[in-house]
């Protein structure tokens, strides 16, 4: 794929929003595939017991597969659960199985319960440009592990009523983690998802989000697209399922924007696909 500057150090991006259905998983897998197609080495960590990111990447995650549960609860090295994603060079996935639903409770009594993912990532020796962590729709111990392990938080926001409701709680958690557990953590990126520019509501919400968050909001937004929602049932990202679709182009563009920001290069939207 088209080359983009690669970060000097691994960027660890936590995709979080405690609301369900806002596009966390869709964004995680499609951004990860886009970054890999741009030439980076990328690991997706599936931290949602539903395992939707694993499914969307075509990664086996039935109950017996070594998974992120074993890493968090059994201290298995991350390298023993990571699988290459078929069809996308440079893309890898640490899958989630249904076991992970119990981890939220099992972790409570464990030593250093909030930093188990961080330790596992620190011990992982394969070179990576990006790690994207797909969080469950809650602010429990799994999401806390992600916030302690990461440097950046990416918040997908769906352009609909109440889009900003509940975000205060996530932002307060980010502040708490930064204050006590992880000085590097910050909200680096807001991505507008399922954007329908034809509706006034969507453009009003987008306006509100841009006023509230300013420069953190990517200039690229992700359109509502049937192709994006179909791809997971084929175990594919939209980048391989329909590479020319508006959804694929917008995720490629969002990835370009994120990569350029990471090396301090200002983003030029001149070549962005129309509507992105
Ligand atoms: P979350 O992980 O935040 O719960 P998902 O990524 O699973 O959200 O998305 C919720 C639903 O919306 C899924 O069915 C997904 O296929 C669909 N979806 C996400 N983004 C888009 C989009 N841009 N266009 C159409 N459907 C989308
Ligand atoms: Mg999800």
From TrEMBL:
Name of the protein this chain belongs to: Chromosome partitioning protein
Residue stretches making up the AAA domain: 11-186
Phylogenetic placement of the source organism: Bacteria, Bacillati, Actinomycetota, Actinomycetes, Kitasatosporales
């Amino acid at each position: 794929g088209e080359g983009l500057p690669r970060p000097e150090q691994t960027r660890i991006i936590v995709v979080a929003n405690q609301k369900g259905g806002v596009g966390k998983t869709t964004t995680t897998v499609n951004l990860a595939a886009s970054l890999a197609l741009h030439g980076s080495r990328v690991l997706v960590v599936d931290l949602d017991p539903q395992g939707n990111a694993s499914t969307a990447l075509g990664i086996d995650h039935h109950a017996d597969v070594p998974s992120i549960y074993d890493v968090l609860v059994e201290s298995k090295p991350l390298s023993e659960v990571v699988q290459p994603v078929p069809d996308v060079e440079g893309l890898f996935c640490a899958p989630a199985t249904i076991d992970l639903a119990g981890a939220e409770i099992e972790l409570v009594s464990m030593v250093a319960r909030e930093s188990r993912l961080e330790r596992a990532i620190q011990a992982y020796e394969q070179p990576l440009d990006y790690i994207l962590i797909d969080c469950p729709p809650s602010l429990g111990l799994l999401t806390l592990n992600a916030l302690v392990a990461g440097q950046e938080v990416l918040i997908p926001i769906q352009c609909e009523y109440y889009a900003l409701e509940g975000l205060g709680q996530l932002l307060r958690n980010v502040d708490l983690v930064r204050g006590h557990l992880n000085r590097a953590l910050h909200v680096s990126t807001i991505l507008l998802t399922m954007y329908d520019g034809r509706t006034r509501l969507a453009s009003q919400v987008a306006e509100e989000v841009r006023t509230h968050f300013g420069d953190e909001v990517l200039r690229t937004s992700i359109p509502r697209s049937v192709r994006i929602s179909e791809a997971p049932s084929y175990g594919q990202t939209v980048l391989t399922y329909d590479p020319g679709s508006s959804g694929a182009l917008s995720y490629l563009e969002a990835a370009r924007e994120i990569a350029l920001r990471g090396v301090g290069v200002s983003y030029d939207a001149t070549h962005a696909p129309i509507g992105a």
